[in-house]
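Figure 6 in text form: structure in, sequence out.
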């Protein structure tokens, strides 16, 4: 944890997958907005700890979204260390690439169990923190491909479309409360998740983006920060941040 110059009563934001890519950009941006940031990681310990050392008041927490026991432990830790979670950014995600007919059950399960963990974590955060306080903001990072489909990513597209449906259903269940939940559906964003794609795949994607360029993680983090701090009449929505790709 870095020094404690962040206000003692600063609101707390938990960012899953906060050690890398879009999640790390969200952590930086939310810290800049005065949040005390809980940087969640599963395997990127070094990156998460380095980032925490750069952000006032930030701290790291570890959990595997596929293992509910680690999420139960995470909630206990958050209660002890921060006492509250005001903003939850469900950013962590996992993809397996394979054509429908070659995709194995284990690969499907690996993708789907991260989505199950997102559901379970959100339930715990609501129950332990947000419903007790009566306010909260939940921001889910889905994807344009949940709307367009994508060959070779059938489970991933199912999960991302499901995440947007999750956003809408939870918003309805939370009716009448100051707890707002929204999705951000990024288009093609330059991160480690996308850097290994073959050149011809990248070119084919670029051809579909009216702005003629890929996005960057800060452009997603800007919208996350907006929903976390303003956007007080946006609820159950999917915000498309994709340079004008289909779905935007
Ligand atoms: P990334 O750097 O690979 O981030 C994925 C994050 O998910 C990592 O920080 C990883 O944590 C975490 N994660 C994966 N499996 C996990 C598990 N079982 N338990 C806990 N955490 C787990 O890629 P990114 O591009 O920043 O992606 C962030 C989000 O944006 C994802 O949900 C992705 O689907 C979505 N998205 C990305 C793009 C894009 O073009 N980049 C487009 C649309 C949507 P560790 O590294 O600590 O294991």
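Output sequence:
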């Amino acid at each position: 944890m870095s020094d404690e110059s962040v206000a003692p009563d600063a609101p707390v934001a938990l960012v899953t997958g906060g050690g890398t890519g879009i999640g790390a950009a969200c952590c930086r941006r939310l810290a800049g907005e005065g949040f005390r940031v809980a940087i969640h990681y599963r395997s990127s310990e070094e990156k998460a700890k380095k980032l925490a050392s750069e952000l006032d008041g930030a701290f790291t927490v570890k959990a595997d979204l596929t293992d509910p026991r680690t999420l139960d432990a995470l909630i206990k830790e958050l209660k002890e260390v921060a006492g509250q979670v005001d903003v939850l950014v469900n950013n962590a995600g996992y993809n397996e690439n394979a054509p429908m007919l070659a995709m194995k059950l284990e690969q499907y399960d690996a993708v789907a169990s991260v989505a199950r963990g997102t559901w379970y974590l959100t339930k715990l955060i609501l129950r332990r923190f947000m419903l007790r306080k009566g306010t909260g903001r939940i921001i889910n990072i889905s994807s344009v491909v949940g709307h367009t489909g994508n060959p070779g990513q059938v489970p991933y597209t199912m999960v991302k479309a499901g995440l947007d449906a999750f956003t809408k259903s939870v918003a309805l269940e939370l009716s009448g409360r100051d707890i707002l939940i929204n999705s951000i559906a990024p288009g093609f964003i330059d991160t480690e998740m996308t850097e290994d794609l073959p050149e011809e795949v990248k070119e084919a994607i670029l051809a579909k983006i009216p702005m003629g360029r890929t996005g960057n993680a800060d452009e997603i983090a800007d919208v996350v920060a907006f929903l976390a701090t303003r956007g007080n009449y946006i609820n159950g929505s999917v915000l498309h941040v994709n340079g004008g790709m289909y779905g935007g």
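Caption detail: The pocket of NAP is lined by residues 16-17, 19-23, 41-44, 64-66, 91-94, 114, 141, 143, 186, 188-189, 191-194 (CB under 6 Å).
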